[in-house]
């Protein structure tokens, strides 16, 4: 029997097993997950629909051009994100998964194992794209009163489109693995030289002035379009996808077929390159990666201990020890670190480029609006980070939990260590981003202070929630964080975190709105009423941190290991 | 049969396997012993094609393991120390998958599953999802999957880890039966009673080098210790205390 068919049947069998397990879950869990999934989808749809309506009403003459740019940006962002995420997932799947080692001992061609893992990674990394891209495209289609064939065409275009970044990501993973096994030290040295250069260029761009223009006037729109012309580069697959969507909307089917086939041809070409490389080198690469480091001595990492002693001397010694352990594990895991850097790096990239859109020269009320949207984006990133890294921390102790169970340390210290790890990590990221955003928008110092303080509060709330729920719903049998996160506890954590950030950012924005009211949005004026939302946000954050932590602590302290 | 010629494997600057040469004819049970970090698991992984040697050659049933890797893997079966099973598959589905991977006929697969199910006493759990199995149950399924296609070479890494006394007896009988059938059996283990009871020849690795090779009696002579294998092993590896960890 053909090996591809055997592997396909294996996947089908696993899927059947998963569905069987899913049926054994409580109906409440299924109901909660499905309801919130649908609500999230509907919320996104509503937001995009209103956005498209706003463009059609406000600038009807320019709507088609703006849509074209929006789609260009949207597909290019998806393309970049998919390339990065597929690269990371493929690396883990091709070189670190136990299943791969098992399959490589079987009598199937190496390139079949590669293709199997590639499609697995691709489906894993692109389902979210379909989920998030769906409301955007459906909202556009409904607004434009597109026919049913438009939606069917989208699906046909989407499949080859997601395959290109997927294949590029996997090629990147193969290339990086090859380079890493040979020139690891050299690469590290080059990064150490390049990183400061990138930082200097970034900061100089932050401080760069720009031409003043009013928001939405013709100069501003022209400036924005000028900055975004790169999204229409004809060699970008996102451009081909964009052209395909526009052609489908206008029912130019010959053009749709052209762009679709262009996408398909390139998808197959890039995949074929990966396939041929895998045929020749994948097994050798796998062996090389698993042959690294036998003689590598890892320093005891005393610097981390010393730094924690200086910075967090007020914490109990045991808590500091757990904190140091978690920091070391995090820094030494290239996959976790890579995902973290991609998420935070993309947000920094956006913030550094804020002045490119001339937002810093606008009225204070506009700048405040953009600053709060940025706070929302930062908070969403925090939610992603806490769901992905903080919530599964206790569960990931898994089989090693006996170590923590037998050491003469209270379980409170273990929880406190996880909380401190989360709080330090999230607040450094979020306060830094809030400060960067405020600086780029040239906000007054008082508003910069408020923004940073709110991010600190959000970090406190999200840390407490994730650590508390992680202790309340641990899963010690699972080693894969993505599966832990996909469970009931992980889903609840995500939903409550989203609810919390909406209330925290919403409450703070009401307070700032009250401060701006007196001058019609030109400057800040003291208003005693503004204290109410600010105090409410403080109480909300403390409660969001305290109650889940207390419940988690209670459950964790009497948990039988 | 297995032929290993001048095999060398390095991890970075450290040598894990140092010019290892061996030949295991069909029908022989060969046991590879050695202290922790001696290079046993590395040797096993090279044999089954997971790792590639820095130099040297491995031949399985006359085929070069590197250049004819798929044909080699058709003749070989591997039982790792940490059994891997798909959690969302039943044991039966896993065995079916293995049979298909080795291109066995459907009716042959069904008959073999029934046969192995009785042999390994798996009837009670073979149709449950393997996420519910104990370590011992998983090891039984993995052993069965290795024997599905009646391999010519069986490579086993630490076979006794998860078995109860009844299971351990079963494994010993099974290794002897496979050897009787003409299979070359390569066992890497710390379980000295298994070796005493089953192995035709024993090899001892230390720091990647084969420091002793022969039958139990030959090793007794070489070490000058007329006692059980445990004492012979300790005598031959005496300088090894505090060895390096590789695998």
How does this structure look, described?
The complex is a heterodimer of chains A (561) and B (247). Chain A is mostly helical. Chain A has 2 domains: 62-181 and 227-289, no CATH class; 313-561, no CATH class. Chain A is 80% helix and 0% strand. In chain A, helix 17 packs antiparallel against helix 19. Chain B is an alpha/beta fold. Chain B has a single domain (2-240), classed as Rossmann fold (3-Layer(aba) Sandwich), CATH 3.40.50.300. Chain B has helices at residues 40-47, 69-75, 91-101, 106-119, 135-147, 165-181, 192-198, 216-223, 229-236, and strands at residues 2-11, 14-24, 29-33, 55-60, 63-64, 76-79, 153-157, 184-188, 201-206, 209-214. Chain B has a 6-stranded mixed beta sheet with strand order 6-7-8-3-9-10, with helices on both faces. In chain B, helix 3 (91-101) crosses helix 4. The longest helix of chain B is centred in the last third of the chain and has 17 residues, at 165-181. Chain B starts with a strand and ends in an 11-residue tail after the last helix. Residues 240-247 of chain B have low confidence and may be disordered. The A-B interface holds A 1, 3, 6, 9-10, 13-18, 20-21, 98-99, 101-102, 104-110, 283-284, 286-288, 290-296, 477 and B 9-14, 16, 48-52, 69-70, 73-74, 78, 80, 82, 84, 86-90, 93, 97-98, 100-103, 129, 131, 246.
Descriptive terms for the model:
heterodimer, A: 561 residues, mainly alpha, 2 domains, 0% strand, B: 247 residues, alpha/beta, six-stranded mixed β-sheet, four-stranded antiparallel β-sheet, 38% helix, globular
